[in-house]
């Protein structure tokens, strides 16, 4: 799995570097050599949080495809954060000035007690902040919506009634309703514990999100369309318009967990 992730990261970093060369070209009139470089803010991005079985990964993937954005599921972000050599490639896709800005942001998050300053959380935050600097992405899970700047992040929570999620999980995984219920409750509990331990919050608190999506009443594709519309309405056509290819640029080693 590690080798697959490294290959995917190599591919993505090359694309980022190509985009950076285009973005850094002088505008018209040309930027004078004596002028200092502009301070780059985070680019608009979508973060999806979800209850297990609420299909947040599917909704995020469809929205990423509609926008032509990169798609990063929890498993990939998690794996990169654990592998220092892979993480380094991601962070080094930014220049030194931008990496310094990320370091300052991490220090501030730790100082105000936003998350626990463990090695894993430090690595995770570097990966997520780098994705935020590149923008044009959908990130699922791992507290990304709490690490990134909320002014440039559409923070989405996917949720659905427990019985609906249990029924879907049973059908999807071929489980009995009893086993499916145990699976849903266990993973919901694990995710809640992750947020309490590392971010000191209750992830179910609605104040952390900009919008909620419920696939049990709206459907997966309609939820994805609502997500795309909300992103375009908030950030405008320059940052939210679909790419010409109309193809999803997925950087993921395994299907996103529901």
If you had to describe this structure to a student in words, what would you say it looks like?
A six-stranded parallel β-sheet has the order 5-4-1-3-2-6, with helices on both faces. It has helices at residues 2-23, 56-67, 74-82, 84-91, 96-111, 119-134, 144-147, 162-173, 177-199, 215-218, 220-240, and strands spanning 45-50, 70-72, 137-140, 153-158, 211-213, 249-250. Mean pLDDT is 76; it is low at 21-39 and 241-254. With 258 residues, the protein is of the alpha/beta class. The chain has a single domain, classed as Rossmann fold, CATH 3.40.50.300. Helix 2 (56-67) packs parallel to helix 11 (220-240).
Under the CATH scheme, the architecture is: 3-Layer(aba) Sandwich
The CATH class, by name, is Alpha Beta
Q: How would you describe the shape?
A: globular
Instruction: Work out the count of structural domains.
Output: 1
What structural class do helix, strand and pairing data support?
alpha/beta
User: Low-confidence spans: pLDDT under 50, at least 5 residues?
Assistant: 21-39, 241-254
Task: Describe the main β-sheet briefly.
Answer: 6 strands, parallel
Number of helices: 11
Q: What is the overall pLDDT average?
A: 76
What's the multimeric state? single chain
CATH fold-level label: Rossmann fold
Strand order of the largest sheet: 5-4-1-3-2-6
Instruction: Please indicate the percent range of residues in DSSP E strands (runs of 2 or more).
Output: 5-15%
**Counted beta strands:** 6
Summarize the amount of helix as a percent range: 55-70%
Query: Using only CA atoms, what is the Rg?
Result: 19 Å
Give me the strand/helix succession.
HEHEHHHHEHEHHEHHE
The first-to-last residue Cα distance is: 20 Å
**Going by CATH, what is the homologous superfamily?**
P-loop containing nucleotide triphosphate hydrolases
């Amino acid at each position: 799995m590690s080798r697959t992730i490294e290959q995917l990261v190599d591919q993505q970093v090359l694309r980022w570097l190509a985009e950076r060369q285009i973005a850094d070209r002088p505008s018209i009139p040309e930027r004078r050599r004596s002028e200092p470089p502009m301070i780059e803010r985070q680019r608009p991005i979508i973060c999806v949080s979800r209850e297990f079985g609420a299909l947040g990964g599917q909704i995020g993937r469809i929205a990423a495809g509609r926008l032509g954005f990169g798609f990063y599921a929890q498993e990939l972000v998690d794996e990169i954060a654990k592998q220092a050599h892979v993480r380094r490639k991601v962070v080094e896709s930014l220049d030194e000035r931008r990496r310094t800005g990320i370091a300052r942001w991490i220090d501030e998050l730790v100082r105000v007690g936003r998350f626990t300053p463990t090695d894993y959380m430090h690595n995770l935050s570097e990966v997520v902040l780098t994705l935020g600097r590149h923008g044009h992405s959908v990130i699922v899970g791992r507290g990304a919506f709490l690490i990134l700047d909320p002014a440039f992040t559409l923070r989405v929570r996917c949720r659905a009634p427990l019985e609906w999620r249990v029924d879907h999980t049973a059908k999807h995984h071929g489980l009995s309703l009893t086993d499916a219920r145990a699976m849903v409750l266990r993973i919901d509990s694990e995710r809640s514990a992750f947020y309490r331990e590392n971010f000191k919050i209750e992830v179910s608190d609605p104040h952390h999100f900009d919008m909620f999506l419920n696939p049990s009443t709206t459907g997966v594709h309609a939820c994805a369309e609502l997500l795309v519309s909300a992103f375009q309405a908030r950030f405008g056509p320059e940052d939210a318009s679909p790419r010409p290819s109309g193809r999803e640029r997925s950087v993921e080693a395994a299907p996103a967990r529901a």
